[in-house]
């Protein structure tokens, strides 16, 4: 049965820019650079401001595509061990976001949990979210945190700090070919 939230109907967005944003955040965390969250946020805001309105929408769709791809990979990895991806990924994601009080507003966490559940069940996160209206400002940091936490989760279970970025880069290069 087809759903209006099927990924085939979803815009892919700027996956490259979304991946660059997530990967640079991960590298800053892993390398424990002296750059502060405030400096990183200013750089992100500057990059987003230079994109214009269409570029921001493409970036949002790109982040949702990353979340979808990460959740599909996680779903297959968990199914190989007879585990439910929702049961094993969502609670730790929600708990982690709950600890990020300076970056993630509590009211955005249920939306991000729903977004991840939608992706984990094969629905497009961007189309699922679109049902509820426009993105809010409070959801921007939460969306970035969701993609970051999923990428870090993949890197942790593969014991490879670059696995999630390589996973997406390989998928992008196979599409180009």
Helix-strand blueprint:
Layout (H helix, E strand, L loop, with lengths): L14 H17 L5 H43 L5 H14 L10 H12 L4 H6 L6 H22 L4 H14 L1
Overall description:
The protein has 177 residues and is mostly helical. It has one domain (13-176). It is built from seven helices and no strands. The protein has helices at 15-31, 37-79, 85-98, 109-120, 125-130, 137-158, 163-176. Helix 2 (37-79) packs across helix 6 (137-158) and helix 3 (85-98) packs across helix 6.
How helix-rich are the residues, as a percent range?
over 70%
Globally, the shape reads: globular
The overall average pLDDT, rounded, is 88
What is the element string, with H for helices and E for strands?
HHHHHHH
Report the strand count. 0
Spans of at least 5 consecutive residues whose pLDDT stays below 50 are: none
Measured by DSSP, the beta-strand proportion falls in under 5%
